[in-house]
Write a structure and sequence with these properties.
The complex is a heterodimer of chains A (255) and B (87). Chain A contains 6 helices and 8 strands. Chain A has 255 residues and is an alpha/beta fold. In chain A, helix 3 packs across helix 4. Chain B is mainly alpha-helical. In chain B, helix 2 crosses helix 3 and helix 3 crosses helix 4. Classes of the chains: A alpha/beta (255), B mainly alpha (87). Chains A and B meet through helix 2 of A and helix 1 and helix 4 of B.
């Protein structure tokens, strides 16, 4: 729980960029943060969003480490080169976006990296916001081994055939039958991608396939309501959603 | 027609509807404004966007302003519609 730390207790964290084996054996960067100590600790793989592998995601990664997780965020833009996060995001967009196969493969590599660590408890979750939310649903359906997944307002989970591209050839809703871990969904009711109707459709599909899921939808919040560096930030809804995420991961990943 | 909010949310652009409208109106107020000028202004404000995403937003905001009667576009130049003087 946020702000429930003991002010007299020791706390330490290591955070650094590392290299991991990603899709097709490619070496990609990742930002890794972990609590100091012998653990064992549960793990979380974070998938960054359309604005880039950016400072927000480094802070998110450290937040999970702060709360006792081995947290890693692969640089899914790595194959486009290096520069500022926004320049790399623009480059990726111009190329038609990051291929789904690369994201899923890089996340699988990140999951294996966490499990290989001596201080891992063997359980790994997955979380992403925006396009990262879509990638979370997709990866949790394509890659076996994640123990829990969190989709934060992923747009284009529900997508028409005309919206599919060579890099993103699948609408994740169409492979709901393959979802292989519990799913938490976090959505703002004012969001238009995904719209409330699209979230309804996703939920109906999860029910139809008997999947373990829970969705939470927030009034007065739209797309990206965690983004405290933008006008989209909604503090009350964001803090409640964060608690939902921590409770969900605690139940699925700890012990 | 897709709403401006949808266009912004779909590409996770760092705009709100008011800020996007404000940027467009600011460009137009400077005179001799084209759609390309607005596209470039959008890309300067949110550098994570590529030109195609920015053009989509530019097109969307101009459509909105044209539909609301606020602007007209002649020979590629965007201009505010002059309001009649109060009598």
């Amino acid at each position: 729980m946020w702000n429930s730390l003991d002010t007299g207790a020791y706390e330490g964290m290591l955070a650094e960029t590392v290299s991991i084996t990603g899709n097709k054996g490619d070496i990609v960067h990742a930002y890794f943060a972990r609590p100091l100590g012998k653990g064992p600790f549960p793990g979380v793989v974070l998938i960054s969003h359309l604005p880039g592998w950016d400072e927000f995601y480094r802070e998110l990664t450290r937040r999970f480490a702060q709360h006792g997780y081995l947290a890693i965020c692969p640089d899914i833009y790595c194959r486009f080169g290096h520069g500022t996060p926004t320049d790399m995001a623009a480059k990726a967009r111009a190329a038609g976006g990051v291929p789904d196969a690369d994201v899923a493969g890089d996340c699988e590599g990140a999951m294996k990296y966490l499990r290989s660590l001596q201080y891992s408890n063997g359980k790994v979750g997955l979380i992403g916001t925006c396009s990262g939310g879509r990638h979370t649903v997709l990866t949790a359906s394509r890659v076996k081994g994640f123990d829990a997944a969190v989709d934060c307002w992923g747009g284009r989970v529900v997508a028409a055939g005309t919206d599919l591209t060579p890099n993103q050839p699948v609408a994740p809703i169409d492979i709901t039958a393959d979802l292989n871990c519990p799913l938490l969904g976090i959505f703002g009711n004012d969001d238009q991608s995904p719209s409330a109707e699209q979230v309804n459709r996703h939920e109906a599909e999860l029910k139809k396939h008997g999947k373990d899921y829970e969705f939470h939808r927030y009034d007065g919040a739209g797309h990206g309501f965690w983004y405290y560096h933008t006008d989209r930030y909604r503090p009350q809804q964001a803090m409640d959603a964060w608690q939902k995420v921590f409770d969900f991961f605690a139940k699925r990943l700890q012990g | 027609m897709k709403t401006l909010q949808f266009l912004i949310d779909h590409i996770c652009a760092d705009f709100t509807v008011p800020s996007l409208l404000g940027l467009a109106r600011d460009c137009i107020s400077k005179g001799q404004c084209t759609a390309q000028d607005i596209t470039e202004a959008i890309m300067r404000r949110d550098r994570s966007l590529d030109v195609k995403c920015a053009e989509g937003l530019s097109e969307g905001v101009l459509q909105f302003l044209r539909d609301s009667g606020e602007i007209q576009i002649r020979n590629g130049i965007v201009a505010a519609v002059k309001q009649p003087d109060a009598v």
